[in-house]
Every structure is written in structure tokens, then in C-alpha cells.
């Protein structure tokens, strides 16, 4: 056995590290869901325009419910940073040079920092609670895009740590990069349009389904309401990419059996359509928004892993 082989075998990710990586992803998704509660309850201004302190202090005296909700979100987000730093260090120590998990974990740390910066800007610029500033939608869209990328890098980190072949850049070859990139971007756009639709529901709530439908077509309605149709429309178009990917996953014979993961993606996709319809019918109550977003995050995570399996293949499978 060569020295290089010994070094590689000695620096393979442990089961504990792999479980920790999946745990960090699960925790971050929980943080996202709590952030939805912050937005839906109008608690984004619960700490005033102070950041990272809450109302200028660390210890809150007689806090309101909105302050508790917002401050709890900040604490959980701070723990995210600690967990991801720990994930990066642990990954770096337990993997060899060029390991794909190193790149994914490093990207996750960078996106965590940008996530904090965007969150701080939303607070400092007053783009929270009931703010109807024209700056809020683009900032919210940018924030969610960063969040989706962060979820993707965490899911990719956990996936790469579990690989036993094709885990270094020099050991993989890339397939269908253009189609995959376009498809994943289309899925991200679905998420962004969904967040803007949810923002419109929060800022301009309807009392009935008929009133909600009238808002979509009324000339005097805010553009967030008149553009809600883009979310289901783009979601249907993005399904074309999902169908293409799933067909490739089922037909391709490679180092991984993708049938189980493909079935999970299909199930989550169907569930999302059902939850989306219920969200509209029930006029987007908070609990429904949280459940719908949870389904979206699970679908996105599963889709990222399936895409990594289909796109970054071990070099010997050419």
C-alpha cells in the first residue's frame, strides 16, 4: 500500500461527521421556517432597527411577543454560523486535498456570512414587519436566493462526505452542465416567486378566496398581488426540468441507485402542488406557509443531491 493510499484511508469522513453534516442542514431548515414565522407575524421589527443587538441591548426587559420571536430567530441564526464553522473545520481535518466536501463547506460558510449581511440590511433599512417599501421585494428575493444556495451547499457537503468514489475534483467528470444549470436556476426562480407571493399575502391579506382572486386582476392592486400568477406558472414550467432529470436518473446505470431518491423527489413534488393549492384555498395562514416552505426545502435538498449524483460522476464511468 502506498503512502498516498494510507493517507487517504486515514482521512475518510467518519459516520459522526456525516451525521453532523445532515444535522446542520436540518437545523438550518428549521431556522428558515422560524424566519417565515418572523415575517408572517410581522415580528421583523421586534428588535427595532438594531442589529446584531436587540433594541440596543442583549438582555431584554419585559419583551413583547414580537421581540421574543425576532430575538429567538437571531439566536438560532447565530448558532448556524457556529455549526457551519465547526462543519468546515471538521470536514477540512477529515478529508483529503481536493475533496468536493471542502469546496461545498467553504461555500456554505461564505453564504452564511452573506446571509447575515442581507438580514442585517433588511433590519437597518426598515424592510421588515409591515413595510411596503419598493426596496423590500428585491431585497427579499436576494435574501431567499442566498438562502437556497446555502441549503444547496449544505446538502452537497453532506452528500460528498458520504461518497466513497468520485469525491475529489480530479476523480469526477461533469455531464449535462448547461441543462442542469438552467434547470436548477428555474427551480430557484420558483422559490423566489413563491416568497414574493407569500410577502404579498402578508402585506395585503384577503378575507375570502374570491377577494384574493380579484386582487390578482385588479388594476389598483399592488404588483406583488398582480404577479402572484408567476409562481404557479413557473413551477409548472420548471417541472419539465424535473421530468428530464428524473428520466435520466432512472435510465442511467451508474455507481448509485437513484430510483429511491427519484421516487422521493416525485413524492415531494406532488406534495408541493397539493400544499400550494391548499395555501391558496386557505388564504395562506401562517401554519400553512410554514408547512409549504418545509416541503419546498425538503424538495430542494433532495433535488440538489440527485443533481450532484447525475452531474458529478466518477471519472471511471465515462
Automatic annotation (TrEMBL):
Record membrane topology: Multi-pass membrane protein
InterPro entries given in the database record: COX15/CtaA_fam, COX15/CtaA_HemeA_synthase
UniProt-listed Pfam families: COX15-CtaA
Pathway: Porphyrin-containing compound metabolism
Source organism superkingdom: Bacteria
Compartment(s) where it occurs, according to its Swiss-Prot or TrEMBL record: Membrane
UniProt keywords, alphabetically: Cell membrane, Disulfide bond, Heme biosynthesis, Iron, Membrane, Metal-binding, Oxidoreductase, Transmembrane, Transmembrane helix
Transmembrane segments: 20-37, 71-91, 103-123, 143-162, 174-199, 229-249, 261-284, 290-312
Main location group: membrane
Full protein name: Heme A synthase
Organism: Acidicapsa dinghuensis
Amino acid at each position: 500500500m502506498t503512502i498516498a493510499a494510507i493517507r487517504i484511508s486515514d482521512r475518510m469522513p467518519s459516520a459522526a461527521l456525516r451525521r453532523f453534516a445532515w444535522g446542520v442542514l436540518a437545523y438550518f431548515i428549521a431556522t428558515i421556517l422560524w424566519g417565515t414565522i418572523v415575517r408572517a407575524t410581522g415580528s421583523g421589527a421586534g428588535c427595532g432597527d438594531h442589529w446584531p443587538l436587540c433594541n440596543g441591548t442583549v438582555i431584554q426587559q419585559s419583551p413583547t411577543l414580537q421581540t421574543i420571536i425576532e430575538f429567538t430567530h437571531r439566536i438560532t441564526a447565530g448558532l448556524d454560523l457556529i455549526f457551519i464553522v465547526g462543519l468546515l473545520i471538521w470536514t477540512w481535518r477529515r478529508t483529503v486535498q481536493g475533496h468536493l466536501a471542502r469546496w461545498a463547506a467553504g461555500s456554505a460558510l461564505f453564504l452564511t456570512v452573506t446571509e447575515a449581511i442581507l438580514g442585517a440590511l433588511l433590519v437597518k433599512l426598515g424592510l421588515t414587519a409591515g413595510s411596503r417599501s419598493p426596496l423590500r421585494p428585491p431585497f427579499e428575493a436576494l435574501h431567499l436566493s442566498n438562502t437556497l444556495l446555502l441549503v444547496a451547499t449544505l446538502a452537497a457537503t453532506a452528500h460528498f462526505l458520504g461518497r466513497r468514489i468520485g469525491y475529489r475534483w480530479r476523480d469526477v467528470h461533469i455531464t449535462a452542465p448547461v441543462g442542469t444549470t438552467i434547470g436548477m436556476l428555474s427551480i430557484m426562480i420558483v422559490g423566489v416567486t413563491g416568497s414574493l407571493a407569500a410577502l404579498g399575502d402578508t402585506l395585503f391579506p384577503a378575507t375570502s378566496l374570491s377577494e384574493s382572486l380579484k386582487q390578482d386582476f385588479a388594476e389598483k392592486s399592488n404588483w406583488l398581488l398582480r404577479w402572484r400568477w408567476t409562481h404557479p406558472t413557473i413551477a409548472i414550467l420548471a417541472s419539465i426540468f424535473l421530468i428530464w432529470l428524473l428520466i435520466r436518473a432512472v435510465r442511467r446505470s451508474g455507481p448509485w441507485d437513484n430510483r429511491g431518491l427519484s421516487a422521493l423527489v416525485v413524492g415531494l413534488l406532488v406534495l408541493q402542488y397539493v400544499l400550494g393549492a391548499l395555501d391558496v384555498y386557505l388564504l395562506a395562514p401562517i401554519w400553512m406557509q410554514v408547512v409549504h416552505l418545509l416541503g419546498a426545502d425538503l424538495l430542494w435538498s433532495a433535488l440538489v443531491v440527485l443533481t450532484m449524483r447525475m452531474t458529478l460522476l466518477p471519472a471511471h464511468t465515462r
